[in-house]
Amino acid sequence: MSDQHPCIEESENWVKQVIMKYNICPFARREVERNSIRYTHTEATKFKQVLKAFVAECQYLDNNQHVETTLFILPRGFEDFYTYLDFVDAANDKLAELDYEGVYQLASFHPDYCFEGEDQDSAANYTNRSPYPTIHIIREASMEAALAHYDEPETIPERNIAFAERKGCAFFTALLKQCQSPSNKSPS
């Protein structure tokens, strides 16, 4: 389910080669195998236009129940992590405004993701680092159902952080580089 932009290819690679392969999200494999993840992007870079595209994606999910979840990718305009976080806040506000609370929840990923209180170069940040700024739009009912069948779901973040710290930054940097599409790889 992709529209074949390099950011789509790289994000699909990231989901399969990092998130699924290393079980960062224990629910990803099922959706990858079902082909129920939608990868989409916007070429817009202005805040209001991107927010409009985000709302359109929520409406797309409303009308396409076979799509379980969307990775909404922002290939340009949100390279700065703090600008991106401002957008995530606005997107969450928009969910509330449109009565989508309880319907969708957001997870955020960014190439420079940094957890509050962590050093920028901490390996723990790689649990939320992605090839591009990305908002994961998740169906809340589906997440609740998946979590009901998972022992101790609250331990997932701690398990992922421990894994990232064991593997280290160089490991994840190499993984992310492997996700790049051939047209985006720089010569070694």
| Proportion in β-strands | 5-15%
Q: How is the main sheet built?
A: 4 strands, mixed
Distance between the termini: 31 Å
Overall strand count: 4
Strand order of the largest sheet: 1-2-4-3
Radius of gyration (Å):
16 Å
Number of contiguous helices:
7
Summed up:
This protein has 188 residues and is α+β, with helices and mostly antiparallel strands. Helix content is 46%, strand content 12%.
Topology (SSEs and partners):
Blueprint: H1 6-20, H2 28-34, E1 37-41, H3 47-63, E2 69-73, H4 81-97, E3 104-109, E4 134-139, H5 140-148, H6 156-167, H7 169-178
Parallel strand pairs: 1-2
Antiparallel strand pairs: 2-4, 3-4
Task: Give descriptors for this structure.
188 residues, alpha+beta, four-stranded mixed beta sheet, 4 strands, 46% helix, globular
Describe what you observe in this structure.
With 188 residues, this protein is of the alpha+beta class. It is built from 7 helices and 4 strands. It has helices spanning 6-20, 28-34, 47-63, 81-97, 140-148, 156-167, 169-178, and strands at residues 37-41, 69-73, 104-109, 134-139. A 4-stranded mixed sheet has the order 1-2-4-3, sandwiched between helices. Strand 1, helix 3 and strand 2 (69-73) form a beta-alpha-beta unit. Helix 3 packs across helix 4 (81-97). The two termini are 31 Å apart. The model has no long low-confidence stretch (mean pLDDT 92).
